[in-house]
Amino acid sequence: MLPPISGCIHLSVAGGCGGTTCGLQYAREILAAGNHVVWICDKIPNGERFSQIFADVSPSAVSKLHLSAVGENTEMGIKSAIGLLEALQNIRLVVVDDWTAKTGRVSSALLKAMRSLINQCISSDVGLIAISSAYEDAGGSGWKSRGNLTECETWFLHRSSMDSMMRELHIDDDVTQFILSDEGFTPRR
């Protein structure tokens, strides 16, 4: 089991470590419970991975996933998500996958849109996962996240140095190890 989502989580992920898979796994749990999920992304998640993650979820439950692939126009997707949050009462999770570019600074307009979404999610009591690329500080002070979402709790996800299929989720000073498989993340025992 992944840790529960409450409020806003900024999931900062090292490249290719499964950030989208992690978001899909959270979405699967919400959809299986009969609730709606809003998913904003630049491109639709990998179809094979999507099928693996949602294999045991009924088609009627998966139909409650409001997926919006917006290319580089993340702000438009965020505005769409805010509109859905205002219109629907049964949304329990919003995921903004790859909300920042992998390099460079986040534009002030995108930060403003994200903050509006965060405020809407908080006032609607809806969980939010904002997924972005992490990077290692050149000065050796560890992992850093792109986009300064001070309103969110920041989690870091990266590969374990011990096993390339093992992932480490860092929440504050707590580190949980997961095995990444076709079904998603499973806690290492």
Q: Can you put this structure into words, describing what you see?
A:
The relative contact order is 0.23. The radius of gyration is 16 Å and the shape is globular. Helices cover 30% and strands 32% of the residues. The protein has 189 residues and is α/β, with parallel strands linked by helices.
Concise synopsis of the structure shown:
This protein is an alpha/beta fold and 189 residues long. It contains five helices and ten strands, in the order βαβααβαβαββββββ.
Strand content: 25-35%
Number of domains: 1
CATH class: Alpha Beta
Going by helix content, strand content and strand pairing, the class is: alpha/beta
How many alpha or pi helices? 5
CATH architecture annotation name: 3-Layer(aba) Sandwich
Mean pLDDT: 91
> What series of H and E elements makes up the topology?
EHEHHEHEHEEEEEE
Oligomeric grouping of the chains: single chain
CATH superfamily: P-loop containing nucleotide triphosphate hydrolases
Low-confidence stretches: none
Beta strands, count: 10
Distance between the termini: 12 Å
Based on Cα principal axes, name the global outline: globular
The main pleated sheet reads as: 10 strands, mixed
Q: Helix content range of the residues, please?
A: 25-40%
For this structure, the CATH topology is Rossmann fold
Q: Round the Cα radius of gyration to an integer and report it.
A: 16 Å
